[in-house]
Hints:
Elements: E1 8-14, E2 23-29, E3 37-47, H1 49-56, E4 72-80, E5 92-96, E6 105-109, E7 113-115, H2 122-126, H3 129-141, E8 150-153, H4 159-170, E9 174-179, H5 182-190, E10 195-198, H6 204-211, E11 217-222, H7 227-235, E12 236-244, H8 257-263, E13 266-269, H9 272-275, H10 279-294, E14 302-307, H11 311-319, E15 326-330
Parallel strand pairs: 8-9, 8-11, 9-10, 11-12, 12-13, 14-15
Antiparallel strand pairs: 1-2, 3-4, 3-6, 3-15, 4-5, 5-7
The structure holds NADPH dihydro-nicotinamide-adenine-dinucleotide phosphate.
Residues 48-50, 130-131, 134, 155, 157-161, 179-180, 184, 199, 223-224, 245-249, 270-272, 318-319, 321, 323 line the site of NADPH dihydro-nicotinamide-adenine-dinucleotide phosphate.
Pfam family, one: ADH_zinc_N
InterPro entries: ADH-like_C, ADH-like_N, ER, GroES-like_sf, NAD(P)-bd_dom_sf, Zn-ADH-like_protein
GO molecular function, one term: oxidoreductase activity
Amino acid sequence: MLPSMTTTMRGMLVERLGAPDVMELRDLPVPQPGPGEIRIRVEAVGINFADVLAVAGEYLTRTRVPYTPGMEFAGIVDVLGEGVSGVQTGVRVAGLGGTGALAEYAVVPAAGLIPVPENLSAAQAAAFPVSYFTAYHGLKTLGYAQPGQWVLVQAAAGALGTASIQLAKAMDLNVIAMASTEEKLELARTLGADVTLLQDDPDRVQKVKDATGGRGVPLILEVVGGKRFQESLKMAAPRGRVIVIGNASREPAHLQPGELMKRNLTVTGLWLTSLMSDQEATREAAQELAKLVGSGKVTPQVGPTYALADSARAFQDLMDRKTTGKVIIEPQR
Ligand code: NDP
């Protein structure tokens, strides 16, 4: 390991769980990579709904404080820990770790690195791992999507939604996009959505049926939860699949088993964190995504970009549904 001259850095610290403004900008020690780890000079951090939930203490896993949030980022390889090979300092990489990216430097296990196609900017690279791997698994690994098939994408202008539309179109699927505002639907259309519907359109269930020749949708990427989950079951085609990816409404959803039986529906959960340990699925997704991103067929959608000191505002804007694409924080400014 090379000795580092820098000993302190700016980073966000959460000491108690709650609303985004519990995060504070602090001077923190620069982390040193242990064996098998790599230190990155962080250029851009992709902010996910999961980061907001983690700070609130409402994520799928327990949040231990104090901690520095930030699971997904891009930056320049700075220092290699003992035993790390196959990576060079000075190269831009994307990383997917648990926490720690909302700082000028972050340390990740070498296994958490994701190679970045050269045509991506730092912000695009930071917008890539979570949304695109999740979209790929929702459509292919668990959704078994076939060309020509319909898919329904909720929160279609968000980070996962825009990734899902792009990937679905690259896979020759027909897309029904739902979102809360006309501006968001316009973005979905520019990405290729075939049918767009306001989330609160009173005729939405019928319109989904009409768009699909009366059958309903064979594949639904469900991210809102609550009463929308039941609605997704109504919109699904016989033998359709509802992939449960999120619960942005933070409301409980109810499931009547009889409803699944009557129309032979399948409900499948998807959590990227646990799928990442499936090496075969991850390798396949990485290869396919690298081809699509490398060829320019798919371009990560960078949303609003904030300085590190404005992290709490970035989190709040995401939670308040003010953002489209991937929210980015740049720790070097
Ligand atoms: P987004 O950029 O999509 O932002 C969240 C969006 O959710 C909002 O823009 C909003 O879109 C929609 N939404 C609907 N209802 C609400 C509500 N009551 N409060 C706030 N937002 C609401 O975020 P992400 O791409 O990070 O995540 C999207 C969803 O996918 C989340 O549920 C997240 O947890 C999930 N996810 C799950 C993963 C997994 O591994 N299981 C991985 C990645 C994401 P609109 O205004 O159009 O309704």
